[in-house]
Amino acid sequence: MSTAAVPDATPERSPGVQQDPAGTFGKVWWKHLLAILALLFAIFPIVFVISAALNPAGTMSASSLLPRGFSLANFRDLLQDPARPFLTWYKNSLVISLLAALFSTFIGACSAYVFSRMRFRGRRAGLMALLLLQMFPALLAFVGLYITFSKIGEIVPPFGLNTSWGIILVYLGGAMGGSVWLLKGYFDTVPKELDEAALVDGASHARIFFTITLRLVTPILVTVFMTSFVGVFGEFMLASIFLTNADAQTLAVGLYGMTVGNTKFALFGEFAAGALLSAIPIAALYLVFQKQLAGGLTQGSVK
Amino acid sequence: MSTDPSPEPTGTTPSGAGNPMLFHHGKTPAWALAAKWILIALALVLCGYIAMRLSDLGYTMWVVLVAFVAMIILAVYGTKRAVPMKYLLPGLILMLGLQIWPIVYTGATAFSNYGQGHLATKEEATAQDIAYSVQQVAGSKPYGLAVAVKDGEPVATGELYFLLTDPAGKNFVGDAKGLTPLTDPGVKVESGSISTAPGYRILNLREANRRSKDLANFAVPTANGGGIKASGISLAFEGRPTLVWDKKADTITDSQTKQVYVARGARWVPKDGQGQPLPVGWKENVGFQNFKTVFTDPTLRTGFVKVFGWNLAFAALSVLTTFILGMLLALLLNDPRIKGRGLYRSLLILPYAIPVFVSALVWQSMFNQEFGLVNNLTHLNVDWFGNTWAARSAVLLTNLWLGFPYMFIVCTGALQSIPDDVMEAARIDGASPLRMLRSIIMPLLLVAVGPLLIASFAFNFNNFGLIQLLTGGGPFNTGNAQIGSTDLLINMAYRLAINGTSPNYGLASAVAIIIFFIVAVISLPGFLRSKALEEVN
């Protein structure tokens, strides 16, 4: 969909740039100044959460930008809080994001393979319909989803409201349309001759798909997996509608619950500790897969 | 192949994996066949289970649909035909069931009055009204009562169940549909009423008191046309109803007060207009009533216009501010003379590496009036969430922080793809840096990131999470708890449907459908011009 070039968000190593000769700094010092200002804007909330999480007094009134002390009391309180099963939330978030991302990547890859490699009636119309459908985010149909799943819960309890499987299913509704265009574009760049050679050798379509195509498109699969993992991990609206039981909630819903009501000031230290721990999986993914995610960004996934 | 315009594989395409020469023997291995049939069998067993549950609960129509799906699964995977469908079917079923159906269902709900007090069919609702009118017959024996919700349902809003123990010691579950015997051996009775029942969460005195209003409107219809009502929270009695439904004339007559009720506006109202309507109404088609309400109801109409205006402004300003800051930073750091650019870049995108729910909640705490960091650092005393414009600024500032790294990343990418020789040529021609920015860099940049700006607008237009986590839609004007100053349309719909004291699914769906149309109008030009359409091959 996009025509943007893949940006390079990793540290720049342009070959054409020589070591700056002495004296250049005099001309660009103001750029350093502005960059540092921007940097302060970018990181002060992060510094603040870290300070609040490590603050021995875990209330909001005692919080400050820079750390005033060092204590892990907030983390201990959080993990032992009987009213807030933080570890369960963490597990739910990881399980739901992992399974939803795995399934949706696989479903997307299957569809993209067909749309890229096979010619059949309804192919063009199908691709268009998928593109059109993407204009309408699933969350707009939340009333229909909510009522449908409260009925499903009556019929097949493990897939109803307040279940991990239920919310995973909701996220999988858009699995096919969400990434098929991005995936198909990449599948198209894998030479067809490889398939044809395998076909001549008597390999079945399934064998070609699983042993040749999927291996050659691994980079885009990683990108799609990561973006959907990040998306599901941070999804709030549907999770907050579907998961009302403390034990079924995800980090997003659980942490939100800690910041509403009168207890939020006293719970602030625990909340900051929880926020810090919740940020770890995604931040780690970004550091490790910076390049793939940056590539995925320009292809139409927006945060 | 000859019609395939996709670029020839370049260096970016990985190679080396999967050597086609390996397929000398084209036979499918036995384990793959076995796995395939096991999966087919599992899918069919699942279909069978669902069909069984459906028929147990009386949804006969849906059994047919499940059987149809099972047949398609068998036809697609059990035969060698329909190869593309083998890959598309799982995604297709999920899409039809969980994306298209909810949209259609939301659309249908928008034309109904579905919501609190209008949840059941007319038959069921009338049965409840009649059951509610029961008066205790002299001498009837009381039941022991425990009020409960199903396990896992919220105590404050879950559907109520009566766990009843009759004088002979037999146990029953009663709901709005009727009585069913409760024979589970795990049921324990203490001093005449049930104290434990597997699958149910029994409400204690306080919880039950909180729901006294629901309890007053709750009665279990019995087979002989009477009903069981609560009397306090540990006793219930069976009695005869005073209401009689004349189905032919479609009226209800109260045999005691001689009041006649007629069906009007999906509930029973007194014919002479005097007195209260009966408590339970039913679900019915109301045509365009919900849409009319949105545009004519005095509070909703002004609220809707206000919310819509802010919604547009929020999305546009979010895109504008994040794009400008991101672009300026990208331009700033696109200078090879700056040392440590890599470090700057890595740190600048840090906000993007943190889940939005975490950042939004942290910003919410930083904007706290008394103890928040923003007021502390600036020595201001702004009530950020109590004042309309302060709250809106807070929302935009937070979204700027959340969104500028994205714009920074895409602008950096676009800048690096501008060919050096174009810039060199301009420089030789004597163009000033400002002129180069205006005439070369900006046009090329906008072409590259234009579609992303539109996508970002569409995303922010429905940025439910940010608003809900940061302000909850507030501040609210006094006397109007439905429309908040920072509400987006989607937040308004959410509150109407889920969060309010009396959910109105019909009205919420109507708002959602209106958002659908707005989103369609916004994205249609982009869709029509989309290059992807022309290139489908």
TrEMBL record, chain A:
<keyword id="KW-1003">Cell membrane</keyword>
<keyword id="KW-0812">Transmembrane</keyword>
<dbReference type="GO" id="GO:0005886">
    <property type="term" value="C:plasma membrane"/>
</dbReference>
<keyword id="KW-1133">Transmembrane helix</keyword>
<feature type="transmembrane region" description="Helical">
    <location>
        <begin position="216"/>
        <end position="245"/>
    </location>
</feature>
<keyword id="KW-0472">Membrane</keyword>
<protein>
    <submittedName>
        <fullName>Sugar ABC transporter permease</fullName>
    </submittedName>
</protein>
<dbReference type="InterPro" id="IPR050901">
    <property type="entry name" value="BP-dep_ABC_trans_perm"/>
</dbReference>
<dbReference type="GO" id="GO:0015423">
    <property type="term" value="F:ABC-type maltose transporter activity"/>
</dbReference>
<comment type="similarity">
    <text>Belongs to the binding-protein-dependent transport system permease family. MalFG subfamily.</text>
</comment>
<dbReference type="GO" id="GO:0042956">
    <property type="term" value="P:maltodextrin transmembrane transport"/>
</dbReference>
<feature type="transmembrane region" description="Helical">
    <location>
        <begin position="94"/>
        <end position="115"/>
    </location>
</feature>
<feature type="transmembrane region" description="Helical">
    <location>
        <begin position="265"/>
        <end position="289"/>
    </location>
</feature>
<feature type="transmembrane region" description="Helical">
    <location>
        <begin position="164"/>
        <end position="183"/>
    </location>
</feature>
<feature type="transmembrane region" description="Helical">
    <location>
        <begin position="127"/>
        <end position="149"/>
    </location>
</feature>
<keyword id="KW-0762">Sugar transport</keyword>
<keyword id="KW-0813">Transport</keyword>
<feature type="transmembrane region" description="Helical">
    <location>
        <begin position="33"/>
        <end position="54"/>
    </location>
</feature>
<feature type="domain" description="ABC transmembrane type-1">
    <location>
        <begin position="90"/>
        <end position="289"/>
    </location>
</feature>
<dbReference type="Pfam" id="PF00528">
    <property type="entry name" value="BPD_transp_1"/>
</dbReference>
<dbReference type="InterPro" id="IPR000515">
    <property type="entry name" value="MetI-like"/>
</dbReference>
<dbReference type="InterPro" id="IPR035906">
    <property type="entry name" value="MetI-like_sf"/>
</dbReference>
